[in-house]
Amino acid sequence: MRIADLHCDALSKLDRDPKLDWAESSGGELDVTAEGLAGGNVGLQAFAIWVPAGTPKTPESALRQAAIFHDKILSAPGMRLVQSGADVEAVLGPGASERGALLTLEGADALRGERWALRLLHRLGLRMLGLTWNEANWACDGIMEPRGAGLTKEGRSLVAECEALGILIDVSHLSEKGFWDTAELARRPLIASHANARSLCPHPRNLTDDQIRALVAAGGLMGITFVPFFLQALRPAGIDDVLRHVEHVCALGGANHIAFGSDFDGIDTYTVGLAGPADYPALADALLSRYPEPLVRGWLSGHARRFLTDHLK
Ligand SMILES: [Zn+2]
Q1: Distance in Å, CA 21 to ligand 1 centroid
Q2: What is the rounded end-to-end Cα distance, in angstroms, of the chain?
Q3: What CATH number has the domain bearing residue 27?
Q4: Quick one: 47 exposed, middle or buried, by C-beta within 10 A (0-12, 13-18, 19+)?
Q5: Distance from residue 9's CA to the centre of ligand 1 (Å)
Q6: Is 54 exposed, middle or buried (0-12, 13-18, 19+ CB in 10 A)?
Q7: Predicted pLDDT at 26
Q8: GO MF annotations for this entry (predicted)?
Q9: Alpha carbon distance 88, 92 (integer Å)
Q10: How far is the CA of 261 from the centre of ligand 1 (A)?
Q11: Domain that holds residue 103
């Protein structure tokens, strides 16, 4: 089955260690590799620009990762830049043979409010943006910022400019107030690219039932993530825990809004059985043992395909 994955952090790893070879390495430092995507039959992989602490939060840092995306990821044979609904169909539609790479930005810090940088990244393929990572920045507070404030005035205008450009808004990592401010302001449905259900695992990065219901009611998309401590607080997480979160979102009415966002390369501990994209077939088998095939197809790529073809210009 063809797979869509809404979040990984391979770009910041490649930025940190220029010796890593995305096209060739497998089983090494990178979780997401060309070989791994082929092994997992991943048709669409989102690649996040994420500027870590210790690296200057500047447009240059974000643009350097965009350059890595073009120079390394897109230069691999059979990789296609996903910018439009037609691109999504080419990588997830019937008979698709190419693999798609979608450029996203995790945290607007590095833009420093510079709209030219946003427009330039859009020209380089940026099609999804998370306003902040865990901390506060000029646009919004993150979920780990004790102040818990929502969108700033600048953040509001960033959401509006993203929507005008055709950049989807990702609400993962936002403070609760930031989530609700964004939900109220946004004219397009939102994505939570990598988050789970807080009522099953009480990590603040997970979404409350009210947030999940709101995301679903507005036609949004929720990428269930494989971060082990977002799945299970008490013991090592396994594929069964992924299924518990899927089941819970279904119980909240979200069966047709579920996708996956692994967070591979953004984690250093793993869910047992899910160490890289090549393990997606094992997840598919586990889902198929419990749910009807059309639903499983939807979760693995159909819902992401529908959402992205509907909402990418
Ligand atoms: Zn993240």
Answers
A1: 23
A2: 26
A3: 3.20.20.140
A4: buried
A5: 8
A6: exposed
A7: 56
A8: metallodipeptidase activity
A9: 6
A10: 10
A11: 3-311
194 CA to centre of ligand 1 in angstroms: 7
Residue-wise pLDDT tens digits, 165-201:
999 999 999 999 999 999 999 999 999 999 999 999 9
- C-alpha span between 154 and 162 (Å, rounded): 12
Q: Which residues of the chain fall below pLDDT 70?
A: 24-27
Q: 290 Cβ partners below 8 Å, 6+ apart?
A: 243
Can you give the length of the chain in residues?
A: 313
Spacing, Cα 165 to ligand 1 middle (Å): 23
Are 271 and 226 in contact by the 8 Å Cβ rule? The answer is yes
* Cβ count within 10 A of residue 24: 11
**What's the 195 CA to ligand 1 centre distance in angstroms?**
9
232 alpha carbon – ligand 1 mean position (Å)? 17
Tell me how far the alpha carbon of residue 67 lies from the centroid of ligand 1, in angstroms: 20
Distance 310 CA to ligand 1 centre (A): 24
The answer to whether 15 and 109 are in contact (CB under 8 A) is no
Count structural domains, the chain: 1
Q: Which of 200, 214, 199, 312 is nearest to 257 (CA)?
A: 214
